[in-house]
Design goal:
- By secondary structure, the chain is mainly α.
- The chain folds into two domains: 13-88, Arc Repressor Mutant, subunit A (Orthogonal Bundle), CATH 1.10.10; 98-228, GntR ligand-binding domain-like (Four Helix Bundle (Hemerythrin (Met), subunit A), Up-down Bundle), CATH 1.20.120.530.
- The protein has eleven helices and two strands.
- It has a two-stranded antiparallel ribbon with strand order 1-2.
- Helix 6 packs antiparallel against helix 7 (149-166), helix 6 (127-145) packs antiparallel against helix 10 and helix 7 crosses helix 9.
- It is elongated, with a radius of gyration of 21 Å.
- The protein starts with 12 loop residues before the first helix and ends in an 8-residue tail after the last helix.
- Keywords: DNA-binding, Transcription, Transcription regulation.
- Residues 11-79 form the HTH gntR-type domain.
- This is GntR family transcriptional regulator.
- GO terms for molecular function: DNA binding; DNA-binding transcription factor activity.
């Protein structure tokens, strides 16, 4: 295991160190159970002071990614221990590819929460939110006709984020923003070969515009079928 020196002395160095190590863990390069080099060795590899390194390791520990024990050193913790909804952790994921396991787990999570949010969006969306959803849906159709993976991911992410925002439930609202990074991971993976599920998106859109909560719930649930997401 070899780390690359971080070539900066700028303020916030500990955050850069934490981000570098976190991305290695999240990508699977450092799988659960991996023992990190000692502080001295890791500091030398990264080219940073022990003070900055210790602060970085504290950040990673607080997010559940690593743990330090006497005699055994610092070890990567199991995925079940990660604070995956931590805003900074999600920000560090930006631009990364997810792992197949994380795609499956995220789909399981969406299957539980998103159909309910979609039902609420159909029942509670404001006039302004329905107008915005119409605009985003029209753009989604345009992107489907002139398919560009990057543009599709951006628009599809906005479509699903808007559903959470339109739910009117204060506990669902944060997911519209907080999960944007993971949505982009997932949508990029599932649409890579042109799998856009446009018909399912149309059913969701139509149900919300008709304020039909049950139809919206069922349409969202249909979209959550794993077979439709390259999984």
């Amino acid at each position: 295991m070899q780390f690359t020196a971080i070539s900066t002395t700028q303020r916030g160095l500990d955050g850069l160190i934490a981000r570098d190590i976190a991305r290695r863990i999240l990508s699977g390069e450092l799988p659960p159970g991996t023992i990190l080099p000692s502080e001295v060795e890791l500091g030398e590899q990264l080219g940073v002071s022990r003070t900055a390194l210790r602060e970085a390791l504290k950040q990673l520990t607080s997010k559940g990614l690593i743990e330090s024990r006497p005699k055994t050193g610092t070890r990567v913790r199991p995925r079940t221990s990660w604070n995956i909804l931590d805003a900074q952790l999600l920000d560090w994921m930006s631009g990364m590819e997810g792992t197949l396991e994380m795609y499956h787990q995220f789909l399981d999570f969406r299957r539980v929460i998103e159909p309910h949010a979609t039902r609420l969006a159909a029942e509670n969306a404001t006039t302004e939110q329905r107008i915005e959803l119409s605009r985003v849906y029209d753009e989604l159709c345009q992107r489907a006709r002139d398919f560009s993976p990057e543009e599709w991911v951006e628009v599809d992410t906005r479509f699903h984020s808007l559903i959470f925002q339109a739910s009117g439930n204060c506990f669902y609202l944060p997911f519209g923003n907080l999960l944007t990074t993971v949505f982009k991971w997932f949508i990029s993976h599932s649409s890579r070969d042109g799998g856009m599920c446009l018909a399912e998106h149309h059913q969701i859109y139509k149900a919300i515009m008709m304020a039909d909560g049950e139809a919206a719930y069922q349409a969202s649930l249909a979209l959550m079928n794993a077979k439709k997401h390259r999984l």
